[in-house]
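Students often ask what a holo structure prediction actually looks like on paper. The answer is less mysterious than it sounds. You provide the chain, you provide the ligand, and the output is a string of discrete structure tokens encoding the 3D arrangement of the protein together with 5-O-phosphono-beta-D-ribofuranosylamine.
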Amino acid sequence: MAVLNSRLKVAVFISGRGSNLKALIKNSKLKKSKYKVSLVLSNKSDARGLSFAKKNKIKNYFIEKKLSVFESRALKLIKANKIKVICLAGFMKILSPNFIKKTKIPILNIHPSLLPKLKGLNTHERAIKAKHKFSGCTVHYVNEKLDSGKIIIQKKVKILKSDTTNSLAKKILKLEHKAYTEALEKIF
Ligand code: GRF
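The corresponding structure tokens follow.
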């Protein structure tokens, strides 16, 4: 128990499926893990990821969609729960510069491309259309500019001629699940 208690507390912000959240929770249970997921916040009431949090008895909250309301409640919860790092995992809101400044803790995001290539949405479709040879995922710090903060880890995959948006998304999602934990372990 003493080991678990000394692990750094992480909050994960989600909006949907939550497969990255699931991977983070799974890895946090390994003996060697330096972190534990202590708080899950969603801006969507029906985010599937909320059910993993419940199942794992992790504090979880749906906060209404308006960004200003989300941010002020999130700030209070982060302080009250002594959170040391925030991980955005499929969180579909852009946090305000004010929130980023006020939290005073690192905020990480996972993005499904090899940044700085393909910032924004629909990355797999755009990678295939542009005939890129490789794609992948990036875990980076969040700053005021979208998908532009310092890169912590990238994982790369070859785009095959036979790849579709779906097949590429599947391959990259597998890499994402590894990359997020590795990035967290790396920054601690
Ligand atoms: C992932 O592809 C992530 O890179 C992007 O949104 C997706 C979230 O998937 N930011 P999940 O909710 O973690 O399954």
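The domain at 113-188 is CATH 3.40.50.170 (Rossmann fold).
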